[in-house]
Write a structure and sequence with these properties.
Strand content: 15-25%
Number of helices: 5
Length: about 100
Amino acid sequence: MEAVTKMASERPVVIFSKSSCCMSHSIKTLLCDFGVNPAVYELDEMQRGREIEQALSRLGCNPSVPAVFIGGEFVGGANEVMSLHLNRSLIPMLKRVGALWV
């Protein structure tokens, strides 16, 4: 769990993902299209990926990917990020943590 917290606080936006997950791909694309440069950890390509995935599950990530952290805080998965976007809260949140400048 400590490793996840440390990794999540290293950049303004952090995404824990799997390279084969279409929802992870959608969230990465959405954020990159805004101009955000998130840190992306592909759990299926990491040596300790399974361990990190279990820690994410303990944090309440269900399903475990995508797991999005903004400003070091767990925001949620694809549904939560899309909801924030649709209610126009996502971009202000990204600006607040310095992930967007415009």
